Amino acid sequence: MKKKATLDDIAKIVNLTKVSVSKALRDHPDISEPTKIKVKKVAKSLGYRPNLIARSLTSSKSKTIGVVVPKIAHNFFAHIVAGIQKSATAEGYGIVLTVSDENKKLEKQHIETLVSMQVEGLLVSVSMATQTPEVFKWVRSLQVPLVFFDRHIPGLGFNSVIIDDEKASKNAVKELLNRGLTNIAHIGGYDWIEIGRLRRSGYEKALAESGVALRPENVVDGGFGEDHGYNGFKKLIEQGATPDAIFAVTFPVALGVYKAMKELDSSYFESIKVLTIGADELFTVFSYPKFYVDQPAIQIGQQACDLLIREIKGIIEPSDCIEYIDTHFVENR
Amino acid sequence: MKKKATLDDIAKIVNLTKVSVSKALRDHPDISEPTKIKVKKVAKSLGYRPNLIARSLTSSKSKTIGVVVPKIAHNFFAHIVAGIQKSATAEGYGIVLTVSDENKKLEKQHIETLVSMQVEGLLVSVSMATQTPEVFKWVRSLQVPLVFFDRHIPGLGFNSVIIDDEKASKNAVKELLNRGLTNIAHIGGYDWIEIGRLRRSGYEKALAESGVALRPENVVDGGFGEDHGYNGFKKLIEQGATPDAIFAVTFPVALGVYKAMKELDSSYFESIKVLTIGADELFTVFSYPKFYVDQPAIQIGQQACDLLIREIKGIIEPSDCIEYIDTHFVENR
DNA sequence: CTGAAAGCGCTTACAG
DNA sequence: CTGAAAGCGCTTACAG
């Protein structure tokens, strides 16, 4: 790599010191208009660009935000990152992107590296495997601003921007009940993962509050992937369930359900309406799933980033607050 | 943000200079084993992490790669970024992610900022709007390694990792012909965008080489989005085309076609087989589109990143080479 | 309006 | 085996 032009290079040409050149370039009031113009002209001709690394070191502002996502090749997280990118760019911040791949060790490593890189703040969506919050306590002790999004760990003193999963589920299930669908099954995840637990309890509360009895054969647990939906549906049928609707805990699970239906009996497409949370909008052309809760991923990213930047600027203090993002129920036609 | 522990902090405690501490931490052979152990213990107890900004400044190695994508909230690019991330992490590089949003000005700005940040190399997929290669010439003059992926500008002396669109299209159309589908329509993009031009000519060549006449009513141009597919299909029908297959230039276009079919006459689903390039694998459960060319996005990302890192290390020279990634034709069942 | 001094936290030769 | 010196490219007080 070629040596880049520095302040000194410009200084020599215009017969000033690098200090004055630095000031001229940054439009410091100290410098006269004519010299500013001259300096800028020379800078441009040399293709000068300030060395941001050096600037970071002196100013102790890297103008950079570290992001940790569990996955990136997923519609939801890709959209969140898009939102983060947008907000960050608008505020003059660059983002360093990191993927934990749902791996606790990688997650820790990434966070440490990002802190070493002197990012001014961290935006993280916790990996499923994360249980021990040591790294986060370390981040806290360093007073590096951090905002959780989508998946958080409460009680550490960090703010979070998330979906109210229980409420979203409860409302959605109630919408089905209002439409006369009362025999609603649930293909859920595990209880030890928050979205599994919350969506399940939203489902249960909706039934309870509407005075509908929960039928044991209507519930299957298993996971969050397509295969779990596929197996889950089969199990449901084996258990003797005859639902008129199914609440699938995630979109991949809903796809698995579709696959199983196609294999078992395509008349299920008509007789069983599927509801899920967080569908890929591209799928709407297929009118499947019939119902879904829209998760405004881009907005989550933007809001989390905006919150973080406000913390960085010292406008707000980190605490243990949760900012809930509104979701809305959609009926696919 | 709290002040982080520095080499000097450790040095004071162990009664050494920061130089020796620096060496001990990096396992330099100069230092004796006992002191190394002692130093490392103290470093750990202080939660010491090297300031990577400072290290970059002295070593002039930022261990960082700049990435510019036109979009991130898109399956294809999200997967590419996943591939880049994976390779970069494996080689100890961090990635700074940037999104041009198909905007030439933003693209230029991002590249300049990334260079200012002293990234060791650049990975860019050119925005559709980019015509003038000034920024890239500037990058070239600085001898900053750069590799194009998916969308490239030839003739600037940079390597590229891309799909052979013409070949992929030609082969795919031939596969249809082999299956007895001879009345194949094409809903294409614009000629001034490379993928539009190449996919179109692949289509034409496949017909020509198979001795099938190109019917003018079978071709519609328009764009690369869902609405273009929607309008394109309607136009096709209006033009009097009665195809038994349609080659849609992109996946969104294929979705638009689906939408139009659903609206006009759902018997089209059976009578017209759709082919496209680059489908989201999640869609395979819907058996639509019937045929597609799989673009191995993750692999493109990995390969581009690996190539870049080899350039950074000086193992290979930048030139104007194109590395084509193999695609494969898939029949959906 | 311009500049000399000091320093950000680290590493790279070079001495001893 | 350990350290003093110099410097990476910039900015921040402080003088003049």
Provide an overview of this structure:
2 copies of one chain form a homodimer. The model of chain A has no long low-confidence stretch (mean pLDDT 92). Chain A has helices spanning 7-14, 18-25, 33-45, 52-59, 75-90, 104-116, 134-141, 165-178, 194-209, 226-238, 251-264, 268-271, 297-312; strands at 64-69, 94-99, 121-124, 146-149, 159-163, 184-187, 219-220, 245-248, 273-277, 291-294, 322-325, 328-331. The termini of chain A are far apart. Chain A folds into 3 domains: 7-50, lambda repressor-like DNA-binding domains (434 Repressor (Amino-terminal Domain)), CATH 1.10.260; 62-163 and 297-326, Rossmann fold, CATH 3.40.50; 165-294, Rossmann fold (3-Layer(aba) Sandwich), CATH 3.40.50.2300. Chain A is α/β, with parallel strands linked by helices. In chain A, the strands form 2 sheets. A 6-stranded parallel beta sheet of chain A has the order 2-1-3-4-5-11, sandwiched between helices. In chain A, helix 1 packs across helix 2 and helix 10 crosses helix 11. The interface between A and B is large, with 62 and 61 residues. Strand 2 of chain A pairs antiparallel with strand 2 (94-99) of chain B. Chain A binds a DNA duplex (16 and 16 nucleotides) through helix 2 and helix 4.
